[in-house]
Write a structure and sequence with these properties.
The protein is built from 11 helices and 2 strands, in the order H-H-E-E-H-H-H-H-H-H-H-H-H. By secondary structure, the protein is mainly alpha-helical. It has a two-stranded antiparallel sheet. The two termini are about 30 Å apart. The model has no long low-confidence stretch (mean pLDDT about 85).
Length: about 280
């Protein structure tokens, strides 16, 4: 029975590894014609005008980075605060309620976040700043920060649960309260978990499609302010695939996919590096 289990696990790992390699090979194969010669210049340019033969994806790359960075700038401190509240800073019953809400948020479909934001957040942004339609970098960032918040909180929560039992007797002997133990002992010891939560949340934000597609305005431009419309790589792929399947513009999507794939690999390598440097405890 043990041999069968090991064989099945090995087979599963082999299939998963081959699937990832097949995806990489697929993206590289279809990207090669564009990444050689003049195609590379066209793809790595700042203008997306497919009818004039310009297929630059750099505005979408900048849009993805801007949106993901601002989303994490909101989600990371909020997640850190919620986790500290749940682990001693707050009363036990409200803390348990907070963690229950965070876990529930993981079960809410992404489209629900986007749909609610279209009717609640976008009008607020439009009314507050009296500029544009409200579909903007700001609206998408705020919604995306809510989407990645459970990832950040649960990652930190797991890290805190590993550290707390190890330091419980020491902090009690020093006369520290639960809140003081979290502030002065657990939190400094959870730095690698914080980095891992940041990397995982960033990867989640970069890879999301629906929220940017529904809220960011989808203008293929580099945003000059939080109220400007922008377009991410994932939304760009969804928009072009919905209307085209033959032209050079369509082929440029494989370069977008390759960039997203490399980003995912970088996030996973970062997580593995953190895990190894922490001796497998992170």
């Amino acid at each position: 029975m043990e041999r069968i289990t090991r064989g099945l696990l090995l087979l599963s790992a082999l299939v998963a590894g081959l699937a990832v390699l097949a995806i990489l090979g697929f993206l590289v194969w279809f990207s090669l014609p564009l990444l050689c010669g003049e195609g590379l210049t066209q793809v790595l340019s700042w203008r997306w005008r497919p009818f004039q033969g310009e297929f630059g994806i750099l505005p979408m790359l900048v849009g993805s980075l801007c949106l993901s960075t601002t989303s994490m700038a909101v989600a990371l401190p909020m997640g850190l605060g919620l986790c500290c509240f749940a682990h001693g800073v707050g009363p036990r019953k409200p803390a348990a309620l907070v963690m229950g809400v965070v876990r529930f948020m993981t079960s809410v479909p992404t489209v629900v976040y986007g749909f609610v934001a279209v009717f609640l957040l976008v009008p607020l942004v439009r009314a507050a700043f009296v500029s544009g339609s409200g579909f903007s970098w700001l609206a998408a960032s705020l919604t995306l920060s809510l989407l990645v918040l459970p990832t950040v909180v649960l990652m930190l929560h797991a890290q805190f649960e590993l550290i707390e039992p190890r330091v419980r007797l020491t902090t009690a002997a020093l006369g520290l309260t639960r809140a003081q133990a979290v502030r002065y002992v657990v939190l400094p010891a959870a730095q690698r978990g914080l980095l891992a939560a940041s990397a995982l949340g960033f990867g989640r934000a970069v890879g999301d499609t629906l929220v940017p597609l529904m809220l960011a305005g989808n203008a293929p431009q580099v945003p000059g302010s939080l109220l400007d419309a922008t377009r991410t790589l994932t939304a760009h792929i969804a928009l072009v695939v919905a209307t085209d399947s033959q032209s050079t513009a369509y082929l440029s999507l494989f370069a977008c996919g390759l960039i997203l794939f490399v980003t995912s690999v970088a996030v996973n390598l970062t997580l593995r590096s953190l895990n190894r440097s922490d001796g497998g405890r992170a």
